UniProtKB/TrEMBL annotation:
Residues 803-872 form the Fibronectin type III-like domain. It comes from Trichoderma harzianum CBS 226.95. This is Beta-glucosidase cel3A. One of its GO terms (molecular function) is beta-glucosidase activity. Keywords: Carbohydrate metabolism, Glycoprotein, Glycosidase, Hydrolase, Polysaccharide degradation, Signal.
Amino acid sequence: MKTSFLLAASTATILDFAAANALPNPQPYPPPHSNEAYSPPFYPSPWMDPNAPGWEQAYAQAKEFVSGLTLLEKVNLTTGVGWMGEKCVGNVGTVPRLGLRSLCMQDGPLGLRFNRYNSAFATGLTAAASWSRHLWVDRGTALGSEAKNKGVDVLLGPVAGPLGRNPNGGRNVEGFGNDPYLAGVALADTVTGIQNAGTVACAKHFLLNEQEHFRQVGEANGYGYPIKEALSSNVDDKTIHEVYGWPFQDAVKAGVGSIMCSYNQVNNSYACQNSKLLNGLLKEEYGFQGFVMSDWQAQHAGVSTAAAGLDMTMPGDTLFNTGASYFGSNLTLAVLNGTVPEWRIDDMVMRIMASFFKVGKSINNLVDTNFDSWTDGEFGYVQAAVNENWEKVNYGVDVRADHANHIREAGAKGTVILKNNGILPLNKPKFLTVIGEDAGSNPAGPNGCGDRGCDDGTLAMEWGSGTTNFPYLVTPDTAIQNQALQDGSRYESILNNYATSAIQSLVSQPEAIAIVFANSDSGEGYLHPDGNEGDRKNITLWKNGDDLIKTVAANNAKTIVVVHSTGPVILKDYAVHPNISAIVWAGTPGQESGNSLVDILYGKQSPGRTPFTWGPSLESYGVQVMTTPNNGNNAPQDDFTEGAFIDYRYFDKVAPGKPRSSDKAPTYEFGFGLSWSTFKFSNLQIQKNNAGPLNPTTGKTIAAPALGTFSKNLKDYGFPKNIRRIKEFIYPYLSSTSSGQAASGDSHYGQTAKQFLPAGATDGSPQPRSPSSGEPGGNRQLYDVIYTITATITNTGKVMDDAVPQLYLSHGGPNEPVRVLRGFDRIERIAPGQSVTFKADLTRRDISNWDTKTQQWVVTKFPKTVYVGSSSRDLPLSARLP
Ligand SMILES: *[C@@H]1O[C@H](CO)[C@@H](O)[C@H](O)[C@H]1NC(C)=O
Ligand SMILES: *[C@@H]1O[C@H](CO)[C@@H](O)[C@H](O)[C@H]1NC(C)=O
Ligand SMILES: *[C@@H]1O[C@H](CO)[C@@H](O)[C@H](O)[C@H]1NC(C)=O
Ligand SMILES: *[C@@H]1O[C@H](CO)[C@@H](O)[C@H](O)[C@H]1NC(C)=O
Ligand SMILES: *[C@@H]1O[C@H](CO)[C@@H](O)[C@H](O)[C@H]1NC(C)=O
Ligand SMILES: *[C@@H]1O[C@H](CO)[C@@H](O)[C@H](O)[C@H]1NC(C)=O
C-alpha cells in the first residue's frame, strides 16, 4: 500500500476523533468545584526582556522587524493556517510585503516526519542511554541541519514531557528517561545542537502530559470514554519545580526558542491557558524569552490563552479543518476592540521573531520548504485539506549527509548490557542462530505502517507523530548475518515467533549460540496497535515474546536475549535463568539498528547505561497510567500524590538495599549497565567554592513596549480583493466589517476584558520580579558552582573501555528521596591500568530544594551526602558535604 493512502487513513482517524470534540468552554474561572485542584492566576503575561543574556541581539533585530509590521501581519505570524493548509504539519501566515515566507513547523524529536531522504535517528530514550553529552549535541546538530536544509524553521522536539512518571506511558520513549537531571542535560544539549545548526528547537510538552489516555477529549471519546474535558494532572509546586519543570528550566537556560504547551490540564486548567504555568513559571520565573506554541488542537479559547501566555496557535484552526480559529481574525478583532492589549500581540510576535533571529536566520535567506507532508509524489496540492494549488512540492533534497555514522555509533553506545555471563563479546562463533520476528524486517517494508503504527518486524522507533520515514532500516538479521559471513560462522535465523518446533530443533543443536529477539512498543494515543491506546497495556513482551524466550532458553544454554522496547519490560526471571547468558537492551536505535547492535555484541563499541529502572512488575513502580476515567464524565483527576517518588526514587524508598531477586527491588537499577572492563573508584575529593549567599531578584521589569500604531477602523481589516480566498484556510482578516459580532462568529461576542479576564491581565506597567527569576534559567546565582567533586577512576580490567561515573546527592531531610542524580560523565576509551579524573560541579540549584513558602530554591539545613559510583545502587564512594 502507498504511504499516502495510509497517511490519509490515519488522518481520517484523527478527524473522526476531532469531530466528536465539541467546542469546549473556556477555562472556568474561578473553578466550579472548589474541592478540585485549582491553578492560581498569574497575570499579566511577562513580556520579553531586552537585556536577557543570549537574546540581546535577537531582541534588537526582532524589534526592528516587528516595529514595521501591521496588525494583520502580526496576527498572521501568531496563527497557523489550518490543518493540512500548507506543506508542513504546521505553518503560519506569511508577510509577503517584506518577503517572509510561511514559517514551517515540522515533527519531530527523532528526525523529520512525513519526509524522504531524511535520517531516522535513535529515540530520545536510546540517546539518553549513551550518557554522552557530545553525542547529544551531535544528534541535535544533525537534526537541526536536516530540518534547515528541508526548509523547516521550527523542529518539534526535543521532549522532556512526558518525563516518564508512568513506566507504561506511551511517549516516554521520545524523551531522555525519567530522571529530571539527566533529562535536563540531554534536553539542553539537544537544543544547543539543533539551534547551532540554524533551526529553532521546540521543547515539549509543557507540562505534565504523562500519559496518552484522556489527553484529548475527542480522542478519548473515539475510544469510548465519554469524558467532556481532558485529564487534569494535579501536582504540587515542589514536585513541579524539582521534577517535571526542571528539564525545561535547563532548556530555557540553553536558550530554547520555543516551547509547546500540552493537551492535558494542570490543576483543572488547560496547559495552553494555564497562566500559572506559562506566565508564572515559564516566562517570569524561568525567564523564557522564546514563544509558546500550542500542541495541535490543544488551544481551547482565544483571548484567555493569549492572556495566559500562549503566543502561537497550532495548527491554527479550532479543531482540524473547521475553518475557524481562536486566533486569526478573532485575535485581530480582540486587539481592535481592546480586549487583548497591543503590547501582548507585540510581545507574541517579538518572541516568535527573536527566536527566528537568535538561531541565525534572516528573512530573505531562508531555504524554501522543499518537501510536502501530505504526499510522497513529486506534485501535490499545497492546500492538501481542500485540494488547492497543484504544483511541484517534493524536490527530493537529500539532507542526510554523513549522519548514518553518528546514528550507528549512538545506537551502539546507547545499547545496554544488563546481564553477561561471559558470552559477550562474541568472537567468531562457530554457529550462530537468530530467533524472533524482532530481528527481521516488516513484510510491508520499514515504513509499511503509517506513522509506524504497527509492531511488525524489528522495532527501531515508536509510533505516532514523533516518527520519521526510515531511509532504510538495517535489521539485526541482516547485520548479524553479514558479520557471521565475514567470520566464517555458520548462521541460521528463524523470524517466525510461532515456529516452535523448528526453533527447538535449531537451537538445541550442539555449539549453537541462540540470540533471541523480542520487543514491546508504544507511542502516541491516536493509534492503538493491538489495543494499546498509545500507552502500553502491560510491560511484558509483545507477540508471544516471553514464550519465545522461554522456549529458546529451555533448549539452549548459550541464550542471548535482545530486547527492543520503548521502556522497561519484565526481565526478573531472565535475570536468574541459568541458560540466559546475556541480556541486551537495544532500545529503539533508528535506521542503523542491526549495525549498532553488532558493534555491541562483538565488542567493537562500549555500551550504555539504563536511563530508567527495570522493575519486577508494573505494580512495582508505585504508579502507572490511569486507564479508567475516575471522575464521571468530568475531567479525570490524576493526583500525583507520590510527589518526587518516581522510578528509582520510589524503589529506593520502598526497598532500599534489597537484592535483585526481591519483589520490590529493581531487577536492574537506574544507571546500571555492564561493560567490557572493570573500574575502581577512589579518592573522592570535595572542594567548596565561596560563592556567597543568593540574592533574591528584586525590582521591576520595564513597562510593556508597544511597537507601532494601527488603525482602529474595522473597515480597514476586511478581506482584500486581490487575494483568492481558500476554503478552511485561516486568515487574519475580518470576514465581515459591519460589526465585531458579525466578524467573530462567536455568540458570546461583546464581553470585555474586565468581564472574562482575571485582574491584571491587561496591565502593561512595570511588574515586580519574583525572587527566583532573573535570566533565562532563572536567578543567575542558582548556577553558581558551590562544590566541585572529583574522584579517580581506574580501569582494572584488560581492555580499553568507556566509564560512566555517576554522582548522586542526598539532600537530607525527612521527606526527601534517598538520593538523586546530580552529575555524570561518559569518559571514553580508558586504557587498561589507566586512571582518569571524574569531575562534577554541584550548582546551588543542584543542592537546593524548592521552598513553597518563599518561592525560592533553598539549601536546607539538613546534612547532605554525595555518592559516586557506577549506578544508582553501586556507589562505593561517599562523603558529607562540608
Ligand atoms: C497545583 O496545585 C498545587 C496544590 O495546591 C499547587 O501547589 C501548585 O502550585 C498548583 N500548580 C499549578 C500549575 O497550578
Ligand atoms: C497572511 O498570510 C496569508 C497566507 O500566507 C497571505 O495570503 C496574506 O497576504 C498575509 N496577510 C498579510 C496582511 O500579510
Ligand atoms: C472566533 O472564536 C470562536 C470561539 O470562541 C469561534 O466559534 C469562531 O468561529 C471564531 N471566529 C472565526 C472567524 O474564526
Ligand atoms: C473583542 O473580540 C473578542 C474576539 O472576538 C471577543 O471575544 C470579545 O468578546 C470582544 N470584546 C468586546 C468588548 O467587543
Ligand atoms: C501485553 O501486551 C502485548 C501487546 O498488546 C500483548 O501481546 C501481550 O499478550 C500482553 N501481555 C499479557 C500478559 O497480557
Ligand atoms: C538449559 O539448556 C539445556 C540444553 O542445553 C537444557 O537441557 C536445560 O534444561 C536448560 N535449563 C533450563 C533451566 O531450562
